[in-house]
Amino acid sequence: MATPKPQTLAAFEAAKGFMPVGEGLALYAAATDAAGLGLPLLEVGTYCGRSTILLADAAREAGVPALTVDHHRGSEEQQPGWEYHDPTVVDPEVGLMDTLPAFRRTLHRAGLEEHVIALVGRSPQVAAAWGGPLGFVFIDGGHTDEHATGDYEGWVPHLAVGGTLVIHDVFPDPADGGQAPYRIYLRALASGAFEEVSVTDSLRVLRRTGDGI
Ligand SMILES: C[S@@+](CC[C@H](N)C(=O)[O-])C[C@H]1O[C@@H](n2cnc3c(N)ncnc32)[C@H](O)[C@@H]1O
To answer: Which Gene3D superfamilies does the entry link to (predicted)?
Structure first.
């Protein structure tokens, strides 16, 4: 299994965000395998760039770009008063979350800025404007059904056959977490167009084997 360079792993561990190390290592290995297709890697849900560091390192090794999509205003559970709110990422001038500056600092510190293209906008709108094939789609955006379904329906059609779909926060037991990512994971399997490659805690890695979403 491919592992990130020590300096990449150190930058990942130092970065603000929501990706545990074990899942991050599985994400890196999946991205490295998929990068061999020679197509861009895409992430939905940049936040402050923690997982982006791993995709950027895998992309750099293969000579492909890593794309990362976020409106940078935070998900529902990251808003003031909610469980995952971080007041240090609020823009005091506009009074809204803005994780873009922290993301840029994260990538700069990791020395990976030139390997990442940041797409700032709402995932379904960016997906509708995107024209090319992708070798890897990592879904870690909004965790409501509306957002998870929008990510799935927006980006999976761009994923090449042979490409990899990774979904984070898949919890079969509702006691462990929200069900929207689990529902798109089930949808992918039920489509007949994906086979499961690996399971690491809440991270699911699937390979696209055919058409249909
Ligand atoms: C769970 S965080 C991503 C965590 C990140 N991957 C990490 O490793 O720390 C989810 C992110 O998705 C973004 N997001 C939620 N819904 C979105 C949407 N519809 N379009 C774009 N970004 C969205 C939020 O702004 C938030 O930054």
So the answer is: Vaccinia Virus protein VP39
CA distance 48 to 73: 11
Q: What stretch of H or E contains 190?
A: helix 180-191
pTM for the whole thing? Answer: 0.98
Residue 2 Cα, ligand 1 centroid: separation in angstroms?
A: 26
For ligand 1, is residue 208 a contact (CB within 6 Å)?
A: no
Does ligand 1 have an atom closer than 6 angstroms to the CB of 149?
Answer: no
| 87 CB-near residues (< 8 Å, 6+ apart) | 80
Distance from Cα 176 to the centre of ligand 1, integer Å: 19
Taken in order of first residue, the domains within the chain and their CATH numbers are: 6-208 (3.40.50.150)
| pLDDT digit string, tens, across residues 95-113 | 999 999 999 999 999 999 9
Beta bridge partners of 181: none
**So which residues are the catalytic ones?**
143
Residues (pLDDT < 50) of the chain are: none
Partner residues linked to 205 by β-bridges: 166, 198
Closest C-alpha to 1, from 37, 38, 26: 26
Atom of ligand 1 nearest to the CA of 24: 8
